[in-house]
Design goal:
Rossmann fold, four-stranded parallel β-sheet, arsenate reductase (glutaredoxin) activity, Arsenate reductase, globular, 40% helix, 225 residues, three-stranded antiparallel β-sheet, alpha/beta
Length: 225
């Protein structure tokens, strides 16, 4: 594990407080309980074998699960957990497209975004985006896919359910060793309104802080291994 963060400064500035203990103190008791559950499950699997694979799941793999994948991998890197330790994925119960509003929000948070210049996300095309958070780590690839297809693990992964619809309508997650409900309110309700950008950024920041706590506490615990 590397103790020096290689995550770009604008991204760390978006998160604000980068001491995971202080971030955890700012969470509500209910959210701390959710964060603790995921940390415990990941720690258990990490002590058994590496890497641990996390697949974040919401219905369309368009907003919340994309945020969670990107922020979890970024937080892991910040705290010195490499992809030999933790690898993050995302998926849906059906495939649609990664919503351009999600990507725009992550760009505002400091990620460097690239994609095929001929792609047309405004038409609903399932565009492949590369989101870079560091010059020393590979980018996170964002596109919509079913949770156990196309670049995602098909077995021995932890399923993290990010929306209540997917959690309720997917009683069995094929191939998962563990299942954790880490539910978030969908920012979709703000689409097309004046609050759109603020709502997406608020959800992005909530997820960023919670992944910061998970990966920070996990990295500290693993130092005793």
């Amino acid at each position: 594990m590397n103790n020096q963060s290689l995550v770009r400064e604008p991204i760390r500035a978006f998160v604000g407080e980068t001491d995971w203990r202080r971030v955890k103190e700012s969470l509500s008791p209910e959210r701390r309980e959710v964060v603790d559950e995921l940390t415990k499950v990941v720690e258990t699997r990490l002590r058994e074998s590496r890497p641990v694979m996390l697949t974040f799941i919401c219905t369309h793999n368009s907003r919340r699960s994309q945020f969670a994948q990107v922020w979890a991998q970024t937080a892991a890197a910040h705290f010195g957990l490499t992809r030999d330790d933790v690898v993050c994925f995302s998926g849906g119960t059906e495939a649609t497209a990664c919503n351009p509003r999600t990507i725009a929000s992550l760009r505002r948070a400091g990620f460097v975004v690239s994609r095929d210049e001929d792609a047309r996300p405004e038409t609903g095309e399932n565009v492949f985006y590369d989101l870079s958070f560091s010059d020393s780590h590979p980018p996170v690839m964002c596109f919509s896919k079913v949770y156990d297809e196309a670049h995602n693990p098909k077995s021995k992964y932890i399923a993290v359910m990010c929306c209540d619809h997917a959690d309720e309508n997917c009683p069995v997650v094929r191939g998962a060793t563990d299942r954790v409900a880490m539910l978030y309110v969908d920012p979709k309700a703000s689409d097309g309104t004046e609050e759109e950008s603020a709502t997406y950024d608020e959800r992005s920041l909530q997820i960023a802080k919670e992944m910061w706590v998970v990966m920070g506490e996990l990295a500290d615990r693993m130092k005793t291994q």
